[in-house]
Design brief:
The structure holds two protein chains of two kinds.
Chain A lengths: L1 H13 L24 E3 L14 H5 L5 E7 L5 E9 L8 H5 L5 E3 L14 E2 L1 H4 L12 H4 L15 E4 L8
Chain B lengths: L1 E5 L2 E5 L5 H7 L23 E5 L8 E4 L9 E4 L3 H15 L16 H9 L10 E3 L9 E3 L9 H9 L6 E3 L6 E3 L14 H4 L5 E3 H4 L9 E6 L8 E7 L2 E7 L12 H5 L14 E2 L2 E2 L2 H14 L2 E4 L6 H11 L4 E2 L4 H16 L7 H5 L3 E5 L3 H4 L1 H10 L2 H9 L7 H8 L6 E5 L11 E4 L2 H15 L11 H16 L3 E6 L5 H17 L4 E5 L5 H7 L4 H9 L5 E5 L9 H10 L2 E6 L11 E4 L8 E4 L4 E5 L11 H11 L11 H11 L23 E2 L30 E2 L46 E2 L24 E7 L13 H4 L7 E4 H6 L7 E6 L2 E10 L6 E5 L12 E8 L1
Parallel strand pairs in B: 1-5, 16-17, 16-23, 18-19, 18-21, 19-20, 21-22, 23-24, 24-25, 28-29, 31-35, 32-34
Antiparallel strand pairs in B: 1-2, 3-4, 3-5, 7-10, 8-9, 11-12, 12-13, 14-15, 14-25, 26-27, 27-30, 31-36, 32-35, 33-34, 33-36
The chains are: A alpha+beta, B alpha/beta.
The complex binds iron/sulfur cluster (SF4) (4 copies) and FE2/S2 (inorganic) cluster (FES).
One iron/sulfur cluster binds next to helix 3 of chain A.
């Protein structure tokens, strides 16, 4: 009996507290940059596609909602031929971002993705790829990798010596 | 058995092995790089360090390389000793100083031994701040990709390529940490076994270039155990699919057949499965037609006509059997030329009814004297050539044993052997790649090869038929061969159907039987034209030629052609006449070819990747291949045939529901195939946990997304009616039975090196026994010698005796349809001796016009220093060359 009265009293007091409810969509909450929302694919500083089609995000995804096919351009640079995320399955856990060795895949502070038709939640590369580096400016995977691509030959990556001369016997 | 103590715990183990193998057999995770179960130890990488103690009181111990230490009784070692653990981590750290930051773009990633070992040792943080050395890559041809930066200098590649497979164009260059593994200049890797580099190399230096075209990680493949379809040896392979395409072939260890390796035809020949020339929809008169409608109409059609069936040596037992039952036993034809049929039957009777047992490839590796008659093994049965390459090491190995050096101690053994080689005699029409390791070679027309064989048999056992007028040279050679074979402990005689001569087969049989009387360990190995030649031959049926006759005489008016391009088994004129005489031509096949263009009905059969079936290899071993993935509208030929049969009211076929029921019928009805249902486990098979064996690894990705572009709701995965496997990742995590291993994986061992965990003992049989059942063993019924010794070959003026020449890439129908292999197919030519060419005033590359088997040809001449005069080699099956019934006389028409 006493506890019911106490509960009523507490509820009554709440009427005088500051409102937590936000008048969405008129009013919007500020989300931090680390907020895990809609996923994008980013580009590296020289605007090349960052994703190298390594499949690690796909493997990390607990609901298996990422699929892609790796391919490469005529100079050996790898990129995804297609890249698909089925957002109707995504649980926004961020594992894909964590797994990505190139900072290509990133979760951004946007959650306004509601659709009447579930099919519209299937995003392809055209919907995913943005024209910038996202949260991680500066990083360029191909500058550190040993693979030669157009514009970067062997030995031209960061921290690399020029290719060895196999005919040299100098110690 | 001896006892060793590992980290204070006693284990009973086999002596004679090294500690690394032993620890791996016991299930320990001990890292290694340079040791390979087939290549032995060299102690180069220092990765397998363990602590070894003098006795129970020794607390200090010393670091040793486990791959270099033989097992000894009461040995005390420690894998977990902190110093050993530290050392192993340090080794990886050093190896990694130069390793590029490549995993994300490396095709080895996810099945990489270096990744696995790095994780296993715990090295995680790079302390080395200096620059990395780099290398320039080479273009190594259509099969293998080269990315030298990733090398960790384990030397496995050159040890496999040069020492094991006898390749000459891959080597190590430069010095110290700069060592470079490649060719002296960029170019196609010459070895027929180059593809194995992708599995032998523990890093991503050598990777499969065909996989790179549509790259998929190992964890994303749907895989199934299957059998190579590209020659009669029946190597075990794994095939992997993604997004509806076949993506790669990997070796599937089989202790008796292919061991750790397969040839390049087997590895890269799969691309025909993805070819745009596939038949993917039933067609009638060139128009697509619904499957059910096709089944009904064809069943009506066969009810109303006199239908005959033409089987195929490249179709499974089940498919051939279903056709046989559909058209009736007396209307079933084997679909191979008269000559091929006769040769295959002869070969099978030698294996089945002869006195000499046919050894497995593993046993052939252990032969200490080999005599090859008429076969260019590297091109007709490549893996057998690799086995022969190992056999020449057997006799010198005795010296190694005498010095009490263990055979696995590869560096020491090679030091002792130097370039000594055991006896190998190669008698063929033209040069072969095995010549360089042969004790003696003999070049002659098939008749004379046979005569040499008969002579050897007679020298071994004088009751074998004798022959006169041998040349002095032949006599000496025959004596040498006979002497070497008699002196050996495990001699093996190898021959086959490829030079199209029954005398050669008979001579080989005679040598083997003669030897058998003196030495019970004698073996005879015969190679056959196609992957299921033996199976089809045992099943029986008439020759293609008889089918032609029957239709010609209007005794039949409809034909069902099963997975067979008749133009490869009969001359165009005859086949054209046959097909146009038939009122209805129904072709069941997976790929288009000359015959499918003539079919009114085309039925899309599954390739090996889309089908279940059984093949019988050249030793008579029946082996099951499992379907890898489902493809819409495509079904096994046997499934189509039994649907048609059921619709037509065929009482035998109506109860056939799945693979099991058809194999059960085959086993019951055909006494030669009794027990065939035991080759694989039934479709009801479930693991002890009640689950199926998954075709996909547990980290298969994209399940809810890969088809989401079509429809966001995932479709129900296909169900496997034919085996206890699932098409998904759902299923057991336990070790599957040896006959249904879809991929090799073990916790911590993502690369193919995990095969260690699937073997009873490293390098021995798979757990539960190597799969497949031998259908027959030599019964000894046919114990008398073959008597008809052929006449000596005599050149004829203005004529050339045409003999077949085989090419690993090009002579086999299916593999040549793929992009990578077709790059390696040579252009047609005529092989001619230098003398004949000089007589005809022809130089290399000039065209010669001639007529053979009633067909005219104009081909460029290729000169050969060793082929006999009067003999001309004609390449088999190359594009632009039609079927020619060989061996026969060709008439030189005109010149220039
Ligand atoms: S956020 Fe999680 S569920 Fe969504 S795609 Fe990434 S890994 Fe998958
Ligand atoms: S993990 Fe990153 S680089 Fe790799 S496929 Fe995914 S998005 Fe591309
Ligand atoms: S290329 Fe591969 S196999 Fe050869 S030494 Fe380097 S890592 Fe070893
Ligand atoms: S040897 Fe024959 S069966 Fe083995 S992989 Fe090569 S082609 Fe296939
Ligand atoms: S595996 Fe023992 S030293 Fe390399």
């Amino acid at each position: 009996m006493l506890s019911i009265v106490r509960s009523l009293w507490l509820v009554f007091l709440h009427m005088f507290h500051k409102r937590e409810t936000v008048q969405y969509p008129e009013q919007k909450n500020k989300l931090t940059t680390r907020w895990r929302g809609r996923i994008v694919l980013t580009r590296d500083p020289d605007m090349g596609e960052r994703c190298v089609g390594c499949y690690l995000c796909a493997a990390a995804c607990p609901v298996d909602c990422i699929s892609l096919q790796a391919t490469e351009d005529e100079n050996g640079r790898r990129y995804p031929e297609f890249f698909r995320i089925n957002f109707s399955r995504c649980i926004f856990c961020g594992y894909c971002e964590e797994a990505c060795p190139t900072y290509a895949i990133q979760l951004i502070p946007d959650f306004e993705m509601a659709e009447y038709n579930r099919q519209n939640l299937v995003y392809e590369k055209t919907e995913l790829l943005i024209d910038g580096p996202g949260k991680y400016p500066g990083y360029n995977y191909y500058k550190v990798a040993g693979l030669a691509i157009g514009g970067k030959g062997k030995g031209e990556a960061e921290n690399e010596l020029p290719p060895i001369d196999v005919k040299s016997l100098i110690p | 058995m001896v006892t060793i103590y590992i980290d204070h715990k006693p284990y009973t183990v086999n002596p004679g092995k090294n500690l690394l193998e032993t620890c791996l057999t016991l299930g320990f995770d001990l890292p290694y790089f340079c040791w390979h179960p087939a290549l032995g130890s060299v102690g180069a990488c220092r990765q397998c360090a363990i602590k070894m103690f003098r006795d129970g009181d020794d607390k200090q111990g010393r670091l040793v390389m486990s791959c270099m230490e033989p097992v000894a009784n009461n040995q005390r070692i420690s894998i977990m000793d902190p110093m050993a653990v530290d050392f192993r981590e340090g080794v990886i750290e050093w190896l990694m100083t130069n390793h590029p930051h490549d995993c994300a773009v490396c095709d080895e990633g996810g099945s990489c031994h270096l990744q696995d070992m790095t994780v296993m040792t715990g090295h995680a943080y790079r302390r080395f701040t200096f620059k990395k050395r780099t290398h320039v890559n080479q273009d190594l041809g259509p099969f293998i990709n080269h990315e030298m930066n990733r090398c960790i200098q384990c030397y496995r590649c050159v040890r496999f390529y040069k020492d094991y497979a006898g390749g000459e164009d891959l080597d190590v260059f430069a010095s110290k940490s700069n060592v470079y593994f490649g060719r002296s200049e960029p170019g196609i890797l010459e070895s027929e076994f180059s593809g194995n580099l992708s599995e032998v190399c523990p890093t991503g230096v050598f990777t499969d270039k065909t996989l790179k075209q549509h790259y998929t990680r190992k964890w994303d493949l749907t895989m199934a155990p299957t059998i190579c379809q590209h020659c009669s040896l029946g190597c075990n392979i794994i095939a992997g699919e993604r997004y509806g395409d076949l993506r790669m072939i990997a070796n599937r260890y089989h202790g008796e057949i292919n061991g750790y390796f397969i040839c390049d035809r087997g590895r890269f020949g799969y691309e025909f499965v993805n070819s745009p020339n596939r038949i993917l929809q039933p067609q009638h008169m060139g128009q697509p037609i619904d499957s059910d409608k096709a089944i009904n109409e064809i069943s009506e059609l066969i009810k109303q006509s006199n239908v005959i069936g033409i089987g195929s040596p490249r179709a499974s037992l089940e498919s051939n059997y279903a056709l046989k039952k559909l058209v009736g036993d007396s209307n079933f034809y084997k679909g191979v030329s008269k000559q091929e049929q006769a040769l295959t039957e002869l070969a099978v009777s030698i294996l089945k009814e002869g006195t000499v047992r046919t050894p497995s490839m593993k046993e052939t590796e252990k032969a200490d004297a080999v005599f090859i008659l008429g076969e260019d093994l590297t091109n007709t049965a490549p893996m057998l050539a690799l086995a022969v390459r190992q056999s020449v090491k057997q006799q010198p190995m005795q010296e190694v044993n005498k010095l009490a050096v263990p055979e696995w101690n590869d560096a020491a053994a090679r030091e002792i052997i130097q370039d000594k080689k055991g006896p190998l005699f190669v008698a063929t029409v033209a040069e072969t790649k095995l010549d360089t390791i042969a004790s003696k070679t003999f070049r002659a027309a098939p008749q004379d090869i046979a005569r040499l064989g008969f002579a050897v048999a007679n020298l071994i056992d004088s009751s074998a038929p004798n022959l006169s007028n041998l040349s002095e040279e032949e006599k000496t050679l025959a004596e040498l061969i006979a002497k070497s074979l008699l002196a050996s402990e495990r001699p093996v005689i190898i021959s086959g159907t490829s030079c199209q001569s029954d005398s050669v087969l008979k001579a080989a049989a005679n040598v083997a039987s003669a030897l058998q009387k003196r030495n019970k360990n004698t073996g005879i190995v015969l190679t056959l034209p196609e992957c299921n030649s033996v199976g089809l031959s045992v099943m029986g049926g008439l020759a293609l030629h008889d089918a032609f006759e029957k239709v010609k005489n209007s005794k039949a008016d409809a034909v069902i052609i099963l997975e067979n391009d008749l133009y490869r088994h009969g001359s165009a004129k005859v086949v054209d006449a046959f097909l146009s005489k038939c009122k209805s031509v129904i072709v069941i096949d997976h790929s288009q070819h000359a015959t499918t263009t003539k079919g009114q009905w085309l039925i899309p059969a599954g390739t090996f990747a889309e089908a279940d079936g059984t093949l019988v290899n050249n030793e008579g071993r029946a082996q099951r291949f499992f379907q890898v993935y489902e493809k819409a509208n495509v079904k096994e030929s046997w499934r189509w045939l039994s649907s048609i049969g059921s619709a037509a009211g065929n009482a035998i076929m109506q109860p056939w529901k799945n693979f099991d029921s058809i194999t059960a019928a085959l086993s019951q009805e055909e006494k030669n195939f009794n027990g065939i249902e035991k080759v694989s486990l039934s479709a009801d098979f479930r693991m002890h946990d009640g689950q199926r064996v998954p075709r996909e690894p547990h980290r298969y990705s994209g399940r809810t997304s890969m088809l989401a572009n079509v429809a966001v709701s995932e479709p129900k995965p296909p169900e496997d009616l034919d085996s206890g496997m699932s098409y998904t990742m759902e299923g057991t995590r336990a070790l599957p039975p040896s006959s249904m291993i879809p991929f090799f994986w073990s916790p911590g061992w993502n690369s193919v090196q995990s095969v260690n965990k699937y073997q009873e003992e490293v390098g021995a049989a798979l757990r539960g026994g190597d799969p497949g059942i031998r259908l027959f063993e030599a019964s000894g019924k046919q114990s008398s010698y073959f008597t008809n010794v052929p006449e000596k070959f005599k050149p004829v003026e203005n004529k050339l005796w045409g003999v077949p020449i085989h090419h690993i890439f090009g002579s086999e129908e299916l593999s040549a349809k793929g992009a990578a292999v077709s790059n390696r197919v040579p252009l047609p030519y005529l092989l001619l001796s230098k003398e004949d060419a000089a007589k005809l005033k022809l130089t290399e590359g000039e065209a010669i016009e001639f007529e053979i088997d009633e067909q005219g040809f104009k081909l460029p001449v290729k000169l050969c220093a060793t082929i006999s005069t009067g003999v001309a080699g004609l390449p088999v099956g190359l594009p632009g060359l039609s079927f020619i019934e060989l061996s026969s006389w060709g008439v030189i028409r005109s010149l220039k």
